[in-house]
Structure formats: structure tokens, C-alpha cells
Write a structure and sequence with these properties.
With 792 residues, the protein is mainly beta. 3% of the residues lie in helices and 55% in strands. The strands form 4 sheets. The chain has a 24-stranded antiparallel β-barrel. The longest helix has 17 residues.
Length: 792
Amino acid sequence: MTRIALIAVTFATLSAGLVAPLGAQQVGGPSATPTAASISTPITYHGRTGQTDVRIPKVTISPSIDGRLSDAVWAEASILTGFSQFSPVDRQPAADSTEVLVMYTDHAMYFGVRAFEPHGAVTANIPDRDRISSNDHIELYLDTFNDRRRALVFAVTALGIQSDGTFAEGSHPDRNPDFLFESKGRVTDYGYEIEIRIPFKNIRYQQAPTQQWGIQVVRRVMHSGHEQTWTQAERGAPSFLDQSGKLLDLTNLKRGLVMDVNPVMTQSTTGKALSPTDPTWRYKAQYAEFGGNVRWGVTPNVSLNATVNPDFSQVEADVGQTIYDPRAAISFPEKRPFFLESSENFSVPNSLIYTRRIVSPQGALKLAGKAGGWNVGVLSAKDDAGAVSSTAADPMYNIVRLRRDVGPGSTAGLVYTDKVQGSNYNRVFGLDSRQRIGSRYVLSSQLAASFNRNALGTAEGRPLFDFTFQRTGRANGFTAILEGVHPEFVASSGFISRSGVARAVFQPRWTWFPKNRKIETITFSPISDNTWEWDRFVKGTEPNDIKMNTSTTAQWKGGWSTTFYTWTETFKYPPSLYAGYFVERYSGGVVQDTVPFVGTDRLTNIGTMLRLGTPQFKKFSGAVELIGGQDDNFDEWSSALIAYTTVEADWRPTDKIRVNGRYLEQRVHRKTDGSLVRLRSIPRLKVEYQVARPIFVRIVTQYDGLVVDSLRDDSRSNFPILIQTASGYRRATAINRGGLRADWLFSYQPNPGTVFFMGYGATVASDEFKPTDLQRTADGFFLKLSYVFRAR
């Protein structure tokens, strides 16, 4: 550990000397109200009065980023003010006053924020980067290509802590991409102040000598639960970015040479028992692995990235999830920096690109940007088959994603993915579009086909389709979906949750805005949701699963929220799910014969879900979700009484300590006699201490307990269920087990890409649901060093 500590100190010193202040997120303390001289400005643009075309000054002197808007140059900046409430009730004057000062130099854009807060205390803690949702903060949406379809997002808290990402119309912001920018903030006696510097070197934009950007500013106020926007924006409009303002006549922006070199070193030591019969514990030190990433800004709007042996960056286990329907698979988010870079250029409906399929790439190359009116993403990677199978050839992945703007607010795109492994291949080709129709309607369409060859044979031209038609509106609207996936459609470079089905959904929506009430908005939505197996859909027969659900959501004053959901549905017996199930029939205590399992033709379900969410209090926030009623017992295909519970709480006792607790429980009882069929329990606790802005220590523990009763033909004969194996049949006997995973991590991350991680993780297991007599099954230490060298 002495060598590791020495490496840590040396690395911290190197980073502090070479990369600060670029990308720094500095924290300041309270201060007094600004003087009159510091707030004088030549031009003010008022959002509520429609003054949204902004000309900002180009200055020659750069302000120091210290969280104080006292530099004389700020007096030249244009001011954006006149904010409106956006959520929960839109197009109303904001309860809080905000001023955003904007100016630029040859090399960077500057923002200064004065957020006045007369109605409540500012919520300002010191979270880790990208985890600022429980803090008061400002978000800047910069549409640098002015296409009103995509934007870069820069968010900063009252204490200058950063978050960033990308936003595309029709989706939620993606917080995974990281950009390098500077920020500092401080709490004042009137609210808070922020200074932000965004270098042109670290973002993509147009090549024109004079250009126009879209801009929107969002302020999030924790104590009230309100979101406020600079321009008046309607929540139910078909486009959020189309309601933004404009930065006009930006001239002669300069990036200089954009070249980043990011070497990475990882070292790990794993421990395990010698054999199942010999519990002697042994550690095996792995050789240090070296890899790295290179980024080159070919032009202001196109970048080229390369990587060799990228590390997985999995410094925390994926959060445990319970499965409601075993017919559908679940996915986990990408976390590797190389694949997160420019990820917005690879987004495609139905996740036809899912880079976690590339398990352990030996090397990869990626080109991304906007050229000739096209958004382009090209990725080529060679994976290491040894990470999955030692006998298969190394697979090659080639992925192309193109998207073009066509008409006001509309896009058209294509995707091509290709995985070749030896003589086998999988290729997917798809077309998609998002079309604005008038002022209220949006039609999203996708058609794709897969071409697959493996040891089982060849399947060519298997289709996928997805059509979504929406009417948007403030008080009412609807969504209609028709989608389907052929049972032999394969996307080896993507993620398909469930194939071999078609689905039709119709969901109207009504929203009310009570006046002078404790409830700010109420939204009611009935949902008709029908699912067919592919062959039944093609033949035009009755749906397999018929659902009639309702959802009622209320936003309360003060930031509280409630959701009440009901379901009334019938599910048809899915024989493919039980292909290996058999029933052992008895007579007089003697086995008579074994016959295939045949479930009840249809099951009827009815139940409710209630969810309660608290506001983001200064030190606490939480949510509770309760689900109960009659639902499927998928283990035995019979009706069951279910009780699902999810409780999550965040506690911040000080501005540096964060505690997150999460508990998931899934109970399934037979309706026939009330006996327990399945119990899944996943408690998780995460404690973080933010030593300083770039340094934190984290401990995560997660227990996963599972109890499953011996299975029987509950809805028909009550005889035991057998599972067919290669050697015959085995009883579906009871399962009773538990496992505890614990991870601790020391993290030093002065800016994205420059990190020092040191951690330890261990797994212990038990043959009992309760955490007793736990036996160690695996553990390991790891060390990661990564540093970004940037051309000046």
C-alpha cells in the first residue's frame, strides 16, 4: 500500500500542477449583495416579452473565474432575464428572479449567473460531478449547430459543481458524455452567483465565420420543485429546443489544435478459493494493463477518436434490478469513456446500437460529427473473444449511424451494424425518421431488417418496425404506437428486450391546472396496451396480452408528487416460456408418468400501484412505490397475489456526506392457498464522503436474497414440475440463497479523463436467504491511473 499511496500523492501533485484551472469546479462561500457598478449592463433581453434574439458582445479581456461577478468586463455583457415557470405549471412568470450575463472572446463563451432567492434557502451541497440533481442549479442548452434538434447541456450548482451531457428532441438528456469547462459558484445573502467558461476547443460547432446558436437556460429550484426557463416554453409542445432563443452574429471563433492523449493504466488482484473442496484462499496478481484514448478535432464539427485496450471503468457494481416479466431482458448503461464520447451521434430508436455488446475491445476507432448536413457516427472495433469464449474467433464490429435534418423540426436517419466472427455474421440495416406535422403532431417511424448466419443456419431479412404518432398539447394529447420484432430478428450490436412480438398502444392524456389549490397539476391517462406473438399478429388473431391501465399523476405545491396506477389485463399462456417444463403425475403415491406442462389458457390480473415522491429538501429526499394485486405467477403460470415494494432515500447530513439507501422487495404468493412462491429482496446502501471537490471516498453494500418454493402445477393438478435437462429430468426444487457484495473506492478526479481510482470489492454468499453463515466467494483489489494531455 506504500507504493500505491506514493503513486496517489505524485499523481495528485501532477494533476494539480498541469490541469488546473482548466475544467476546475471551485467552491466558494457566502458573500454580500453585488454593488450597483457590478450589475450595470448595456443590453437586457427579457424572455417573457419575446426578446429572444440576442447579440452578445465580443470582448478582449477574459474575466477570472472565481464566482464573483465583480470584474469590470462583466459590465459589457448582455443580460438574459424575465424567466418563466416551466414545471409543474408552464408559461407563468417565475417566482424567482434570475439574470444570466453572456459574452465571448475568440476562444471561449462566458456566462455569469445571479440567482435571486427570496422565498427559501438555497440548497447547496458538495456532490460528485454529474450528481447534482438534489442541488439548486442552472442548466445551459447550447444548440451549436442551430438545428433545433440537439443541444449540449452544461449544468452548474450554486457552489460551482458541474454536470453535463447532450439532449436530443424526443428523448431525455444523456448525462454520460463529459466536456471540459470551468465553473465556480458561491452562496450570497440574496441567493447565489456562478461564473462559467466554456472553451470552444472542447465542443463541436459550425465552421462558418459568422454563425448563430440556439440557447435556452433552465433554473431548478429545489425548495419549491420548480423548473424555470428563460424563454417561455410549453411542456406539451412537440419541440423543447424550438422554443429556445438565439445567439446571433458570433464571429471568428477559434479552437486552435484539438488533440487529447489519454493513457490509462489498470492493475488488479483477484482472490478465490483453490477449489470447491479446498477453501484455502489465494490471490493472483494480474499484470498491469496499459491502454489509452486519442481524440483529434479534425474540424470544428468533426472529431476522430481511437482507443487501445480501453478499461471498463466499472468502479461500482450495476444496481440490482427485479424482473417483472421474465420474457423481457434488461439492459445496463454504458460507462466506458471512449464509447460515451460523441454517444449522441450513435443514438438510434429501439437500441439498435448498444456498445456494451463490445465486451473487451482490443482496439477501436470512431469518427463523429456533423458534415455536409449529416450527423455522422462511424465506429469500428475488434473485440476479444477470450473475454466470453476461449474457442471462438475474435469478433469485428462495424457500425455506421447517419442522420439528416429534413424540413422544420424533422429528421431522417439510417443505421448499419455488422458483427463478423469467423464464418458467422450478423448485419442490421435500418431507416428511421421523426416528422413534425403541423404545430401539434409528430410521427416517428423505423424499419429495420437483420441478416444473420450462425451454427444453426441462416436467417435473412427478418424485420423490425416501429411507428409512433403523437399529438402534443398543454392540456391534452395522445400517443399511438404500433411496433413489432420478428422472432428471428437478431441485433448482435444492439439490445432487443423481447423479440417475436408485436404491440399496439393507445394512450390519451388530459392535464388540469387547478387555480389557488394545493395541487398544481393533475394528469390522467388511460392506456390500452395489446401484445401479440408474431404469428398471431400476422394472422390477425386476438392479442396474447390485453391490458387496460390508468395512470393519474399529481404535482403538489412544495415539490411533492403522487402517482396512482391501475391495471386490468389478461395474459394468454406462452408455451415457448415453458418448453422445458413437464409434470410428474402420481397415483397412490406412485409415479405414473411424465407429461408436458400445459398451463391455463388465460390468466386475469388486476391491481394498483401507488408512488409518493418528496421534494428535494436541503438534507433529505425520498420516494416510496407500492404495488399490489393479482398478477401472474410466472414460475408456475398461475394467478398470484403480489406485493412489490421500492423505497429509496437520500440523506445529506452535511454538505460533504451523502447517504443513499434503496430497498427492493418482490413477493409472490399463490392465490390458491396463499403460500409463498417467490421472494426477492435487494437492500443497497451507499455512503460517500466528499473530502474536497475532486476527491471522494465511497462504500457500497448490496445484499441480494432469493427464495423460490418447489414448483408445482398450481392452477391444474398440483403435481410437481420437472425441468428437462440434457441427461433427463430434474425436480424444480426450492431455492434459498443470499449474497452480499461490498465495494469501497477512493476517487481523485480533477476533471473528466484525469482520474486516480483505488478500490476493493468482495462477494460473500450464503445457502440461506437471511445473511447468516456467509462464505467468501471472491474479492479483489484494483488501481486505475488515467491522465489527459491536451494540446495548448
